[in-house]
Specification:
There is one protein chain. By secondary structure, the protein is mainly alpha-helical. 92% of the residues lie in helices and 0% in strands. It is built from four helices and no strands. The chain has helices at residues 3-43, 47-72, 78-107, 111-178. It is rod-shaped. The two termini are 35 Å apart.
């Protein structure tokens, strides 16, 4: 294997980490949109306007589901799988105990209960799900750095070996050229 193959492998691995980080950031964005749309729905006085925000929440849930599926289909290590499973669990908790019950309360116009649910359940569940995303992003960053350092080290060794073989070759050609 030559240096360009190692550099290509490093670039591919780095891009895989970047794609994963991008997917995670998109999930974070959609989760934030869910929270904001629920807050906007709470502020609406017109039920149809509130329903428009709730439709946006459902759309964001669908987008996160698609991103989760794509992320989960990647070839992941046991450590990353553990972090991913913890995030999925926190996200399901956010949705099942926070988002969906809050939607029901908003549609029933039970605003006092909706406010309590948001404060007591949704907000803490959102923080846990966000922490799950943060943990996965940190994992991706650390592994991209490790892989970069590993490939950089290999590249340096190959470069040194190449220079040494050239020097030996020149030395031998000069020695045999004189004899």
């Amino acid at each position: 294997a030559d240096i360009s193959e190692y550099n290509s492998a490093a670039a591919t691995d780095y891009n895989d980490h970047l794609i994963a980080i991008n997917q995670l950031n998109e999930m974070r964005n959609y989760q934030m949109q869910i929270r904001l749309e629920l807050a906007a729905a709470r502020q609406e006085t017109d039920a149809f306007e509130a329903l428009d925000h709730i439709d946006k929440v459902r759309s964001a849930i669908f987008q996160v589901d698609n991103l989760l599926q794509a992320y989960g289909e990647r070839n992941i290590s046991a450590e990353e799988k553990k972090l991913f499973d913890a995030f999925v669990s926190a996200r399901l908790n956010f949705g099942r105990t926070g988002v969906l019950p809050l939607i029901d309360l908003l549609q029933a116009e039970k605003l006092t209960q909706a406010d309590s649910l948001r404060k007591d359940v949704l907000d803490p569940a959102y923080k846990k799900a966000s922490q799950g995303i943060d943990n996965l992003i940190q994992y991706q960053i650390e592994n991209a750095k490790k892989e970069y350092e590993r490939v950089t080290g290999l590249t340096k060794k190959i470069r040194i070996a190449s220079i040494a073989s050239i020097v030996v070759g020149l030395t031998l050609s000069v020695l045999f050229g004189i004899v």
